Amino acid sequence: MDKPGIIIISHVYEIAKGIERLLQEVARDVPIQVIGGVDKTNIGTSFDTIFEMVSESPSTNILAFYDLGSAKMNLEMVQDLSDKNITIYNVPVVEGAYTAAALLQAGVTKEDVEEQLKEIQMDK
């Protein structure tokens, strides 16, 4: 079984890259991919770019984090069409992704990561 990976979807390129930089400090061995904005200058999200990123992920088991509602909507569409196992978390994007990355780096199972994320879940 492959190592779970993390994807981050943000409406802003710089936010996505900043989160990636933060996660790389605690999780160098965890596959992490980020996408921000429609491109490097325009704010938004794109189903096509998210689908492409998921398809190119080395992981078949993906933990997904997002910043705003339309990013979640695009993730849900990708989840429906992808053959990869994508779990979308309704947690604060930075705190949730950081928690997951650090725990995965430490060798914690996805199930145990999910238990920790329940503590910060936004839709309790």
TrEMBL record:
Residues 3-124 form the PTS EIIA type-4 domain. One of its GO terms (biological process) is phosphoenolpyruvate-dependent sugar phosphotransferase system. One of its GO terms (cellular component) is membrane. InterPro entries: DhaM, DhaM_N, PTS_EIIA_man-typ, PTS_EIIA_man-typ_sf. It comes from the Bacteria. Its EC number is 2.7.1.121. One of its GO terms (molecular function) is phosphoenolpyruvate-glycerone phosphotransferase activity. Keywords: Kinase, Transferase. It holds the Pfam family EIIA-man. It catalyses: dihydroxyacetone + phosphoenolpyruvate = dihydroxyacetone phosphate + pyruvate. Homodimer. The dihydroxyacetone kinase complex is composed of a homodimer of DhaM, a homodimer of DhaK and the subunit DhaL. Component of the dihydroxyacetone kinase complex, which is responsible for the phosphoenolpyruvate (PEP)-dependent phosphorylation of dihydroxyacetone. DhaM serves as the phosphoryl donor. Is phosphorylated by phosphoenolpyruvate in an EI- and HPr-dependent reaction, and a phosphorelay system on histidine residues finally leads to phosphoryl transfer to DhaL and dihydroxyacetone. This is phosphoenolpyruvate--glycerone phosphotransferase. It comes from Alkalibacterium gilvum.
